[in-house]
Amino acid sequence: MQSATVPASMEYLHQVMSLTEEILRQAGCGEDDERLIGISVEEIFTNIASYAYGEGEGQIQLEFEIRRTEEKNREAVIRFRDQGFPYNPFKREDPDLSLPIQQRPVGGLGVYMVKKFMDQADYQYEDGCNVTTLRKMFKEV
């Protein structure tokens, strides 16, 4: 398992994305799965950096774990921890994509994509922390 702690600030998004890309490439993750995982990591990080601490400052702890499930199959597990306001991003109702874009409310599409791109996306509040966990199976290339 690899971990990193960064300030909850958009200034650190590039660093987080570079680390994510490096870990996934070392694990043999293919480009398509790497792209979906990357979009999901970016979305969750952006939401935490933008909203978790309001006007205050805080940190985001990231944990990356690559598990071997079967021969040539692996699972990426990415966990985000922050001490911001308690908030479950997955509790929000999915957007109605059948509505014309002008009639859709602002927000919610990024979290919807995370739910669609990942095999599993979970939230827990434990020990004073928001814990968001993303899981994605991939074939080693």
Word description of this protein:
By secondary structure, the protein is of the alpha+beta class. It has a single domain (2-139), classed as Histidine kinase-like ATPase, C-terminal domain (Heat Shock Protein 90), CATH 3.30.565.10. The protein contains 3 helices and 5 strands, in the order βααββαββ. The protein has helices at 13-26, 31-52, 109-117, and strands at 2-7, 59-70, 73-82, 120-126, 129-139. Strands 1-2-3-5-4 form a 5-stranded antiparallel beta sheet. A hairpin with a 2-residue loop joins β2 and β3 (73-82). α1 packs antiparallel against α2 and α2 runs antiparallel to α3. The longest helix is centred in the first third of the chain and has 22 residues, at 31-52. The protein is globular and about 45 Å long. The model has no long low-confidence stretch (mean pLDDT 91).
Which structural traits does this protein have?
Heat Shock Protein 90; single chain; 141 residues; alpha+beta; globular; five-stranded antiparallel β-sheet
CATH architecture type: 2-Layer Sandwich
What is the residue-averaged pLDDT? 91
User: At the fourth CATH level, what is the homologous superfamily?
Assistant: Histidine kinase-like ATPase, C-terminal domain
Note the main sheet. Answer: 5 strands, antiparallel
Structural class: alpha+beta
Query: How many angstroms separate the termini?
Result: 20 Å
Number of E-type strands: 5
The CATH topology is: Heat Shock Protein 90
The best one-word shape is globular
The share of residues in extended strands comes to 25-35%
Please list the strands of the largest sheet in the order they lie side by side. Answer: 1-2-3-5-4
Low-confidence stretches: none
Number of helices: 3
CATH class: Alpha Beta
State Rg.
15 Å
Number of domains: 1
Helix content: 25-40%
Give the ordered list of helices and strands.
EHHEEHEE
